[in-house]
Amino acid sequence: MNGTSSALTRPLYRLYEKHLLRSLDRGRLPRHIGVIHDGHRRFARLAGLPDYASSYRAGMDKFVEFLGWCRELEVPALTCWLLSQENLARPAAELDPYYDVLIDLFDRLGEAAGPDLRVGVVGSLHLLPDRLREAAEGLAAGSSRGGRRLTIALAYGGRQEIVDAVRDLVGKLAADGLQSEELAGAIDAAAIASHLYTADLPDPDLVIRTSGESRLSGFLLWQAAYAEYSFVDVHWPGFRRVDFLRALRDFTRRERRFGR
């Protein structure tokens, strides 16, 4: 889109955003939103950017903007998947620039999060380079204890989360003195859920994935069993407020059955 067409369409998008905002049933908005921020590399190729780092920076700028949209709508909880375990197998030439961008993002969030936002980081953090792990843990440790929640998933895999939860549960039961023949009877869905990374959060109501991919790739496998899904065609750096509002509008119009 050239500068002239962008200047012409921008006011139209603002009008459409206002229309979408008016049409939202605020009482039916999701309390917890999960986001898979996909499409940075494809965005770079389509936009003709000189390298992936440019797209990563655009994506993290969008991430900060997205947090503002959620604050305006008073969304209580967000869980955002910024790096999967599978991503760690990519070449260092792709990963190192992304690590740098994430560290910059965490510095920005530490300065701009505000007193109402509590930040947590989940995943297999021990797999991360020390500099990234320390930046993530520093962000979480320095955030407020506010009521709004932002959970950042790094080196995260949904299957690994369930494995870790079961291990923690079995370890606790053994420490409590249960014998091997008693363990099976003490393991149920509620017990496992209490040991998940997000045990102190409600299950997500809505999961958004960008870039047109219609799959979860292991994101919040347990917690999102009854979530609603929105698969958005645009790549994450190009995700617009109007795309977000459309996803919310569609969510508020759905009849949630929770498997019934």
The name of the CATH architecture of the largest domain is 3-Layer(aba) Sandwich
CATH superfamily of the largest domain: Decaprenyl diphosphate synthase-like
Please outline the major beta sheet: 6 strands, parallel
What is the count of structural domains? 2
Q: Name the poorly predicted regions.
A: 1-5
Mean pLDDT: 92
Shape estimate: globular
Per the CATH scheme, the topology name of the largest domain is: Undecaprenyl pyrophosphate synthetase
Give the strand order of the largest sheet, numbering strands 1, 2, ... along the chain.
Answer: 3-4-2-1-5-6
Oligomer: single chain
Q: What is the CA–CA distance across the termini?
A: 45 Å
Rg, rounded, reads 20 Å
Structural class: alpha/beta
Helix content: 40-55%
CATH class of the largest domain: Alpha Beta
At a glance:
Helix content is 48%, strand content 12%.
SSE layout and pairing:
Elements: H1 3-23, E1 32-36, H2 40-47, H3 52-72, E2 77-81, H4 92-112, E3 117-122, H5 130-142, E4 148-153, H6 158-175, H7 180-186, H8 189-193, E5 206-209, E6 228-231, H9 241-252
Helix pairs in contact: 1-9, 2-3, 3-4, 4-5
Description of the structure:
By secondary structure, this protein is an alpha/beta fold. It has two domains: 28-156 and 204-252, Decaprenyl diphosphate synthase-like (Undecaprenyl pyrophosphate synthetase, 3-Layer(aba) Sandwich); 158-196. The protein contains nine helices and six strands, in the order αβααβαβαβαααββα. It has a six-stranded parallel β-sheet. β3 (117-122), α5 (130-142) and β4 form a beta-alpha-beta unit. α1 packs parallel to α9 (241-252) and α2 crosses α3. The protein starts with a helix and ends in an 8-residue tail after the last helix.
